[in-house]
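Researcher: Quick one. four chains, 1587 residues in total.
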Amino acid sequence: MNPKLTRRRFIKGVIASGAAATSTTIWYAANGAAKPPGAVERLIRINVNGQARSVDVASQETLASTLRYKLGLTGTKLGCNRGECGACTVLVNDVPSYACSVLTHSVKNMRVETVEGLESANGDLHPVQQAFVDELSPQCGYCTPGQVMSAVGLLRSNPNPTREEARQGMAGNICRCGSYDSYLNGVMRAAQIG
Amino acid sequence: MGEIVRYKRDVWGEEVILGVSWDLLWVVAVAVLVLLAAHAIIMAALANKKMDKPSSEGRRVVRHETIDRLFHWVMAASILILIATGVAPILGLRIAWLNIHWIAGLLLTFVVVFHIIRSLFWQDFKSMVLGPKDFGEPFDSAKKPGKYTFEQKGMHWAVTVVVLAVIVTGILLFMQIDTPFWDRTNSMPEDRLGLMFLLHGLSTLALVALAATHIYFALRPEKLFYTRSMVSGWISEDEMTANHDTSLWSPKEAD
Amino acid sequence: MPATSHDVMPDIELYQPTDEANALELASTLGSDGWLLGGGQDTYGWLKDRNKSPAAMIELTQIDAWKGVKETADGVEIGAVTTLTEIANHPLVQAKFGLLATAASRVASPQIRNVGTLGGNLNQDARCWYYRRGLDCYRAGGNICYADSPEGLNREHAIFGASRCVAVSPSDTAPALVALDATMVVASTSGTRLIPAQDYFVGPARDIVNMTVLNEGEILTAVRLPNAWANAEFYFEKVADRNVWDFALVNVAAAIKVSGGSIADARIVCGAVECTPRRLEAVENAIRGQQRSEQLANQVASMATDGARPLNYNHFKVPLMENLVKRAIRG
Amino acid sequence: MAYMHIGKDFVPPDVPGKVTGRIKYAEDYARDGMVYARLLTSPVPHGRVVDIDASEALAMDGVFGILTADDVYPDGEPQSPGLKVLTNEPTLMGEPILAVAAIDEKTAENAMAAISLTIERLPFVLDPLDSLAEGGSDAYNGGNTFIFRQGFAEEKWTADQVESFKSGNEPTAEAQQSWEYGDLEAGFAAADFVHETTFSTAGYPHMSMEPRSAMAYWENGKCYLHGTSQSLSAIAEPMAAIVGVPLEDFVFINEATGGGFGQRARAGSIPSMAIPAKLSQKINRPVMMRVSREEEFTIGGARQGLQGWIKVGFKSDGTMSAMDMYCISDNGGKGGGGDANSAAAGVSALYQTEAMRFRNTSIGTNTGHRGAQRGPGENQIMAIVAPIMDKAAEELGVDRLEIRKLNAAQNGDVSGPRNTPFTSAYMPEALEQGAAQFDWEGKKGRSRQTNGSKVRGLGIGQGYHNAGRSGMDGIIRLMPSGRLQIHNGVGNLGTYSYASTSRAAAEVLKMEWENCDVVTGRTDRHLPITSPQDGSNSIFTNTRTCYGAAQDLLGKMKEIAAMDLGGVAADYEIDGSRIYQIADSNVGMTYAEVAQRGMELGGKFTGEAELPEELNTLTALSVSRLAGSALMGIYHDPRHNNNPPGFTVTFLEIELDTETGKFDILDLVTIAECGTVVHPQGLANQLRGGAVWGIGLSALERHLYDPQNGLPASSGFWQSKIPTYLDTPAEIGTGWVDLPDPENPVGARGIGEPSMGAVSAALNAAISDALGGHLFDSAPVTTDMIINHIAGVSEEAKPLAQNNFRG
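Model:
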């Protein structure tokens, strides 16, 4: 592979992407126009676990990236970074979403909840967390924060699910250890004690 | 602009030729337009000095046999279809072009093969031979050509080269797609495939230029009688004697 | 460079217009440099892999006018950035166009449906794994197809309508919309055009790099479902390897109007067998006026696959498609 | 026996951290000045790096340096298969060639694009049979196989031999490896039903949820490596060697591992962790290397796929009289794996065949690294054999349960090439228990019943794995506070065996679990060597070491008590964290007092003298660092006798839709036969997890490489087809036989791996049953195969294909 390539035109601008980043702003600048409505500012406030946090967020940054690298909330895991596993599930306005596949800028006016925000002020576990402990739902634990958040989201919208409803609701989370059954036991238990 | 070749990465991530840069289509279009416009303007400026147009009345001689005229128009139609269908997706027109394209391509191949065979055995092949003497023709107003003028011979042979190139590369590319006759094999290495696309593209560009030039001249008033002869087969004796050396070309009289 | 080297979002600008005019203006100005962003569930993988490199994303989900389900005089209009979860759970959609609600509920996974939009599901790009890997194939503007070859891994690919490219329509909602005879509302700075769902999707013969008729600067803003097919008898089924995440191996969406015991009209559409949702007009014609029965289903099922041209590894799609059509007719 | 801890549920100390997200995996650490590394990996399946020009990349802002194979192997790369840290001679697409460190990942990726890599392409091969065929390409530089102690070699068959095998015949070429017992010929002669077939099974990736990310930094000459492993202490020494640092200057930190499944048991299978360590050393900054999902696939390895031929004979009563098995094992691009041998040994153990022959040839392909994956060999072969058992039962008119009971392993039985006796075996009991729990008698009549397009299928499966090593060490400490610190080097990958085996020590000392701490998570907490946590070993192995260390401590406690309070050690007993005279329980000391006394005494009581001679290097190092800190129990575990098995039985019912090829599992019951149960919840989790894996093996998972170009085609969760909630039953029935094993002090044996094999076997048997006894001779059996079979569409996949559909 030849370094000259970077100057040749390819059918996809794979390499040019770094340079392309500023091209639209340049376009507007060159045309003497102010940035159009809708252009994003980097410094934003986001509401995470009930706290408003000021963060410098690049326009393309994913929520998982902001949570993990800017806010130190490493409970949100990057199992695949492609929306294919669920380990990064967080709640956005109570709705389970893959943090790896949501832009931070898209949720800046919404409530974001992560696994770190569930315990009560006195340190008591959330009913879902307690039920997962009681049922020994986690195995390796890497998917657990995502499973917890999906379960919390599910129980907020449906506090008394049937086991089948729980199964459908939890379906967007992979557990490679195969602890699905134990997680469902946990969800059903949490529904009882919650 | 400024690039002739487009590149892509092959399956291994290495650079290979993808094909011609279609920006060249615009370059060609503009260049041809400019050149032809210039020609038209110059011709218009020189128009008064021109002799009177020879009369199309009177005795008629045969210039093109029916079969050759048929060949010409089939070839012209297939080339225009090939250009139109080939260029449409480049211009962003959403038509199902590929089947028409290869069918037209097969037709073109068929008639070209027919023409080659016919010209070698049944036509006066020599009348189209472009020899060193012919190059003096444009510069010597006293010198008249045989059946075909220098320009006509030049156009013919340029088209021959380009059409053969487009046919050969086209057939090779044709073999890379699914057709009713075979399933594609992906057997051509990607770099060679890209080269074929490049040559096909370059010959297409040349063909576009040649076709535009050819059509332009065919529509020029002083050449229009040739165009008519390609439709109806004949030119008048006046037209013949004004433009051709009858010692070199003595056609039979038209019916 | 192999895709394995890439896993993070490269620098890309983001625009978050909040009104329609701004969005259309941005789409028009940025043209092919602007990437229309719905929920982004089909987008970020492309960008992280650096296999698509737009200069900017135009996020459409902040525009309230393009969100939600509303009843109109002659049917229901659904904003293009309405989430799939909202559509699947919406009482009006469930009541009148249960076919779409069911189809939306079978897409990917709950989280993807929570964020993913109808527009995104309809406009998503092909899932051919060669293409997704970032290879410069026909669909990526190249001059080769890696999937349709003597050894290509094409189990999930097309059995109809291939033209060089053999990718299939990956959407679950698209066949439902074609079956419901929906109309797509497409806006641009120069106005709005209405396109029947059936004509919205485009195959490789006509356009090998795009899957819809959307032009640069155009945005799908809404989908209209006509009352003509409201409360018809519906059937949707998706067969995929895994019951979560996976794209259909074949799916079927059928709307059948029955009156007086016989089929008055029907629209039957299969997905994942061609680059566009495949409407089965021959089958529809054959069942019109007939009693809906197992016998009828068995009789006409094979018409569904007339002209199928399987590749190396997808012959199974022929019987699977026939079976799904059978089930749709049987009800 | 009434235990205080063994057989009781408890909350493993790391579970709260898992549900709160507080527990840290390697990627969750950060350090001041930390930079990020990304990998540039091979774009070709087989090649040789000719030149790397990184000058442009290194000149970019925010780029700190690169690491290449030349940095890692200044004297040249090792000429053996096996994963390398980095390589200039890649033998699979995606193998790491260099790493770039930059201020953030994005910059590292931008830098990657500016590196010019010139690579020479070499011929590649993706299917062992293509390589075996004369004229076929070889996966390695130097051959297509690696023979232990001999090196690379080339193994070729004639074209006819390959074709004949592909058409279903016994391979005629001489195998690389073979063993045999009993009289095979007589066995087949005595058989009333003989079944002979070729088969193929898919290798597929482990796909642990946590990618093998690692972070490293150097401080005061010591290397601190945050990594992932199945075996905290077993991995430390070889990992230090790979990094190139003395063991005493190497700290491996690994609180939690996001799944192992066999691929993170040994340092050699995760050498990529050395990249941030080496890079950090080179650029003098902490380096985080996050590994992407695709990289986890390409360097994370896979189960071996098998292409085989099998011939089984049954006597009229259903006894398996002879089995002949010939395998071609896919060794992938980096060697590895002994699945075929385990498969044969597993069949021998489970079915107690009277005569058996095993032959195998291992051939490399330019695909993922191969190595142990949950029940390597056994679990895929059981999916092939179970339907054959049913065919035999049907042909011979024997009940499907009875034919299994008849051939089942029981106490006193032997297995494998050396006819090794089991430590104990209760397979018939497990079968009976499973049949009762599932209601086999009540349900078996539903076999092949139809309802519209749906048809029922029932299956019985059995699983086996040799589940226990010995010879490791134990360290426990009684602190002056009276708390017990149990040092445990087992990895924490979700089985909780690091905690449950520690409870054997608490059991011996009759201590409340609240007063015990498991010391683990990082090697500078001074851990004893343990078995790599693979092969279902932890339970058997580490209850032995913890128990032994506790016995050592107890002996010392009694000695101290006798010294201070009179009498001899045997006069003392313990309870309630007190040691007291049996004759007068008022005369005694608290554990805290004993510990304090021990520290005063020093010497052997505090690990400063009279250590067991055979202690392993790492244990000795740990003991030397702990010496004098507490009253210590130190133990080296002697080797045990015989083969401790893990057995499982699964009963399963499916409803298969003949129009869609899809099925639902209506009921699934798995019974474990693994000695005394140590941790019921943990065991149930293993059985449930094994079931999910079994379903993956038999129905879904795959390992695809584009045959034209060697591109990995199943590198994500999506294309690998990892089972989801909705592909697995909503409830999985579990149970256990719970009879003690004599070779383990608490009677326990391991179970993690066979939990999967029984399910893969039962599911394949049930699919076969639903389809009227059709044998696919393949695992997985996917939707398209079922549809094709029912529709009579001829098979599309090539026979015995590997790294392709069907295998």
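Helices of chain B lie at 23-46, 66-87, 98-121, 150-174, 190-219, 224-232, 237-243.
Researcher: Thanks, that's what I needed.
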